[in-house]
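[Structure tokenization] protein backbone as discrete codes

[Encoding] learned vocabulary of local backbone shapes

[Begin record] amino acids and matching fold tokens:

___
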Amino acid sequence: MKIRLGYVAMSSVLQNCSPSKTITAGNLSKIEPKEARHSRLLRLARENLHNTQRLFFHNKAHDIKVFRLTSKLIPLATHPLAEDWNWYEQLQEQLASLGEYARQNGFRLSAHPDHYTLLNSPREEVVSASLRDLEYHHKIFQAMQMDASAKLVIHVGGSYKNKKESLQRFKENFALIPAEIRSRIILENDDKIFTVAEVLELCHQIHIPMVLDIHHHWCNNQGDDIRDYFGDILATWKEESFPPKVHVSSPRSSRNIRAHADYVDVEFFMSFVDKIRGYNTDIDVMIEAKKKDGALFQLMDDLKKVPSIKILDEATILAE
């Protein structure tokens, strides 16, 4: 079973390399005229894309193929203050260059729209904003010329005091999304409301892949053993070009179990690997620890000491 490790959005190793530089809406509103606001946003976006390319160079140098782009790549792209800023056209060449580099080097890219992207909200304005946010992320991948294997990870959303109605509302609103954007969406179980079993059933109903979050399942389950679901989770990926994707992080403390620790506890990670060995399937694992790539490198160092693990390169292991 080959396991590739990746990390989220930015580096804790590289200096001055944030791809998420932005400006507050309040400060942007003070800039006049409108063209000057757009110019400020464009400079920030170009710097973010430049730093993303630096991250890509860094990832290639360390054999890291799995990477999540920041949702803040284009600052305030969905805010009313920027609604007439044609960032897509102005940044298309730079984004296309990033996409070409990603494809040439076999990168698996994804994005995770922010927590306010709630397709199952009972409020129409929230759903409309969520659809705009999904379109924004899709346009980034479109400009990068990335096919539908570049995914958008979202959660089901809130329960709104009635899980059954919330799930039905998700399905109805999901159907409103253009097909080209729907093809990018994958669903993740969460740490408070929707369990692996519930998300898996929904994924089968709407025919999209499920991302298993190990930490979230540890926080939010009904005493279920993940082995009872993993085969069905794998089945949701059968039409995809990349292996199934899994998220991992460790609890920060016994008092704050939902928060992510700086690093991934190797025993926590290996307890999952040992449970799924029998499936003999390759997976890609996104590390969601606070130390980003630093956590990836530390986990690889820790895995070198595990007898059943063979190190293939700086970010890939073979669980024998």
About this structure: The chain has a mean pLDDT of 96. The two ends are 7 Å apart (CA to CA). The longest helix spans residues 34-61. The chain has eleven helices and ten strands.
